Amino acid sequence: MSNSYYLWLNFFTGGGAIGSSTAYFLTRHQLYNRTIHSVALLEASQIAGGSSGKSGGLLAAWATPKCIAPLSFKVHGELAKEHGGDKRWGHRNVYCAEVDLEAQDLDKAVDHSHLQGIRDDEGKCPKALDWILPKSLKTYKQIGTPRDSAQVNSYLYTTSMAKLAEDHGAQVIIGRATKINYSEDSRRVVSVTYSVNGSTTELEATDVVIAAGPWTTNLFPRAKLLTPRGHSVVVKPSENLSPYILFPKIEPAPDTTLEGLISPEIYPRPNDDLNSFDTVYASGPDDYDVSLPSSTEEVESDPQKCTAVWDALKSVSQQIHDGKIITKQACYKPQIRQHEEDEEVGPMVGPTGIQGLWLATGHDEWGMQNSAGTGLVMSEMIFEGKAHSANCESLDPKYFLEAE
Length: 404
What we know:
- The protein is α/β, with parallel strands linked by helices.
- It has eight helices and 19 strands.
- Strand 9 (176-182) and strand 10 form a beta hairpin.
- It is elongated.
- The model is unreliable at 1-7 and 110-122 (pLDDT under 50).
């Protein structure tokens, strides 16, 4: 280490949306000086290889926790405006609604005219939501508007944040973090050990932010997490769909033989750098059936669970039914504990009690939404000693960590 300046090494274990956003904001902080500060993004496989590359990408000012969600929604919008996020990572404002739908068996119906007839919703549904079968829609409850709701392509957002951090001096290292090393009295961080193809390297660090998602516990056992797995599909519809994100409850229509349908969330997406055409992303319920593998590269999807998402999707929309699946996938999320909808549980954002060791994990279903805000407040904590853009006291890891 040079005697002429103080070298500040920050290592982010995990190249997901949280780590990439934190790296971005550290390299944009007013106290950051790339000649004396070193920011590294340490990722075991590939940037956005986990849930950050496979989530629906919903952004909502009404998300949880309330202490950071409005800030993060606002910051997402600012990032999109500054960096052309509408083109670069598919940022756009949307409507969101909870709907009750009746599934129709379009595979067996020869004449679909009775399903595609004049809408009889009696004003329950906006006219622009014209891709749900009229006879399927039973109730419509708007929960978000373009003023407080948006979406991104999660993979493109995450990889863009990592690239923008690189542009300002951050280094992306592809290697598996195996150990965080401490001083003899265990009171401060001194280095990180990582492995590449069986060869290990130890790098000095004054600050380490563990943003490893569901793999956090491997590096810091006191941060116990559940690791639910979710399945999703991406579909190319026969026509472009209006920007309405739907949270449905799907039941079979009385005159069908359909049964056992799930209720996947439905996200129409605009064309982007991954696909030159509009797509539809849909995700099914979480399960705890399969243990967390050692890396994102080893995550396996269950074909039956992906088929269940597709079967439900194609029963409520002719445009989706007539489209084709282009992606089937699965991912794991970091969850502090199971909770009720809208119940606030975490995430863990802040110091661990060990000097230089920070946590940014446990974001559960709101990881993409809260990534930008988390990155911003983490940069403030590291450079200034505390967050000032939001009051994150309730997210202090001390409330969630197991005792030593």
